[in-house]
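User: I'm putting together a teaching handout on how multi-component assemblies are represented. Below are the sequence lines for each component of a complex, exactly as they appear in our records. Could you produce the 3D structure of the whole assembly as structure tokens, so the students can see both representations side by side? Please keep the chain order the same as the input.
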Amino acid sequence: MNFDYLIDHRDEVLRLTWEHIQLCALAIALALVFAIPLGVLITAYPRLRVSTLVILGAIYTIPSLAFLAFLIPPVGLGRQPAVIVLAAYAQLALVRNFQAGLSGVDPNALEASYGVGMTAWQSLTRVRLPLALPVLIAGMRIAIVSTISLATVTAWINAGGLGSLLFDGIAFNRPSMILAGTVAISALALGVDLLLRLVERMTPASRALHQART
Amino acid sequence: MNKLDGQHNPPVNAIEYDRVSKTYPNGSRSAVSDLSLTVERGKFVVLLGPSGCGKTTLLKMTNRLIEPNSGTIRVDGIDIMSVPAPELRRRIGYVIQQTGLFPHMRVEDNIAVVPKLLGWDKRRTSARIDELLHLVGLPPDAYRRRYPAQLSGGEQQRVGLARALAVNPDTMLMDEPFGALDAITRSKLQLELRRIHQELGQTIVFVTHDIDEAVRLADDIVIMRGGRIVQAGDPLEIVTDPVDEFVSDLVGASDALRRLSLIEARTIATPVHAGELPPLEMRPETIDVRAALGVMLGRGLERIALTGEDGDVTGILELDAVRTVARTHPIEATV
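Assistant: Of course. Below is the structure of the complete assembly, with chains in the same order as your input.
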């Protein structure tokens, strides 16, 4: 096992990395379209919380290969079913953390926001969201990192991305290819994780806490 | 445009509660029932009572954080339901117990919240922030850029007060603002609040369950129980003439009376100028202030004469002097 493939086919690895990023970005974008309203909904109506999270948890337990196989008859092969599956898996982490972040905001700060004369919208955008932001970003970080690693499996249905290096490496018995894919995926996941941790720390709420400790 | 801006002939009464009732959906008993109360402009009124007596509900109905089931509340003569709630609240200062400061905003941004909502320009807002920080005893240079988590509890509450005062509201609502502070910090802030009230003259409605705090701060105390007013009057009246056992139990916890009973009347008497004395009720100068107060209230007198051992009048005890002593800070009184 060696790094030959990674070195000799640098351009190919970079192209697949870009493809991988696109796949994950599409999946997360689609996931957010559902997760944001769902998170807000179960924050506003806590009675829906348990049932919603149970359903999302159930989806999360479906084996990914089976899920992809189910989607082949209605959606076919390629990127489209991959995006759907990845978005579905990301729901649990996103919705649970959105709800935790939004309902974890200090009720005194919320009461004060209305008390000083903010409208519901002003209270949401100037107080609740900024205060929840570190937790919201943390939830997205977890969802994105797990999407990056899960997106390797979707190469199985021709969705592209770094997973194809793994499948081809196995098929052609080229360990160097598998290693190249593994290194690229890990680097991507770690890089995104680090980047989002930095973003998390730059939010006003985190800065305020951080400054208080020093 | 703003109905609350009525600068011409402002009504005498800052707040009028007219047969106000509030029942919570899950509660069988009503939080406030058929309550009427008038708060005069510039008065410092303390709502006092045990938890669950409806005092906080009454306070929060004033700025529509809670809406009554029936009855009318008028602020500056205007029915609060005729004004959009956010607009109403921007004109009423609001301070709560755990400060309610926005933790992600610096001190200056917390104070600037209402000016920003009202669209003040930056320069005016900034000048006002400095002015307010001076007023509440926090040097702007040291405090403007700090976050709430970098302040002590007392400092946070000073900022909370500054924020509530930002646009110079005529009316302030305060919900146990000093409840979470240690005794010494609480006493300090009580004195400062009293000073600020004397300086600015707003109408303040202040909720507490602490009789000593009520006595120290209030022009008028309103004692509540089970959503109704049990007794309302100035602190001395309440302390010396409780209407029933409930009030006397509540007041019994007060050290204000105990303090008065430890002070000799002559120590706070004003000297007499010979020859100008109208006939007065007389008592020996060694009488304690509590007993002297009993005499004054019992007979409806504003002052009594004090006499020395030989029976000569040595001084005049004024009701106002008693008031001042009753309100004096216990730490000050003992040092």
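A couple of points students might notice: Residues 4-213 of chain A form a domain with the MetI-like fold fold (CATH 1.10.3720.10). The mean pLDDT of chain A is 91.
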